Amino acid sequence: xxxxxxxxxxxxxxxxxxxxxxxxxxxxxxxxxxxxxxxxxxxxxxxxxxxxxxxxxxxxxxxxxxxxxxxxxxxxxxxxxxxxxxxxxxxxxxxxxxxxxxxxxxxxxxxxxxxxxxxxxxxxxxxxxxxxxxxxxxxxxxxxxxxxxxxxxxxxxxxxxxxxxxxxxxxxxxxxxxxxxxxxxxxxxxxxxxxxxxxxxxxxxxxxxxxxxxxxxxxxxxxxxxxxxxxxxxxxxxxxxxxxxxxxxxxxxxxxxxxxxxxxxxxxxxxxxxxxxxxxxxxxxxxxxxxxxxxxxxxxxxxxxxxxxxxxxxxxxxxxxxxxxxxxxxxxxxxxxxxxxxxxxxxxxxxxxxxxxxxxxxxxxxxxxxxxxxxxxxxxxxxxxxxxxx
Length: 390
Hints:
Blueprint: E1 2-11, E2 14-20, E3 24-29, H1 36-48, E4 67-76, E5 79-88, E6 94-97, E7 100-102, E8 113-116, H2 121-125, H3 128-142, H4 146-170, H5 180-217, E9 224-228, H6 251-272, E10 283-288, E11 291-292, H7 293-296, H8 299-320, E12 327-331, H9 339-349, E13 354-359, E14 373-377, E15 380-383
InterPro entries: DNA-binding_RecF, DNA-binding_RecF_CS, P-loop_NTPase, RecF/RecN/SMC_N, RecF_2
Domain RecF/RecN/SMC N-terminal: 3-360
Protein name: DNA replication and repair protein RecF
């Protein structure tokens, strides 16, 4: 897949923006705060329905405006697709595909993007929510309908938790809250699907992560991915990350474990006014050299794991998608890496159909990716690419 043209209206610092992109490497150069990452963020939104920098959509809309528009022309082989999303400061977002209204969760069917960014270090060093977000965005890209499943799960979770808080305030005991059973059924059905998909994702990423880590770090430190599941007794949000047997069980077995765990925790959930079991409490445990990356890995090892996760994601999408390679976006990554990792990453990514690199310092970009330069200054885009073969 190729992004041929990007148009923005009232997105971040851009009143309007027009950006033409080429096949192969494209470099966006500009000082910090000028808007180059905003361009990358807009492209990523079309693929993941979210930002890699903020958890809500409101900050993406320019100050004083009610909505923003991201519009992109995508090339899938010989076929072009025009995708558009309107981000509303209030209310639901709207999407259009080739000019016709569409469901928002249809966009990832057409936009396939993998982002590398400094924030990726939080995937390996941050709290469990960072790893859950990474996994769920990948689920949406692999299977776009998972966007609806995840949204429905979050809605049911909010309603169930509100009921628990109300019961706590009224002094209701577990056996006196029969209405909770209805929400348990919905939570189990949706949550089991998410858990199963996450387990399958970890299994599918294991081989590509091992290969990518070795290529980036120049050493085999035996990277591993395992889910710590609250339905099996772990509670990463409380500091317990014993993953147990994290094989990809049939969904029916996961649902049975989920329901049993909810029953066992019901009294404690009412006491605390929280839903304590489900995919919203799980964590993706990352290890190198048989030790957790978080707390044990060096800075270089942590970066190698983060980059390996992204490269493995790109390879998985590349293998599975009939649309070809995903677009790779390397957002201010090279400034964070030593010279050896810069060169390794450049060599590993240069062969993709389209790569978009952002950098504050042009000299940071390794030669294999130093093509088609566009300069960004205070929200103004100037194209000085010249001869792409030069």
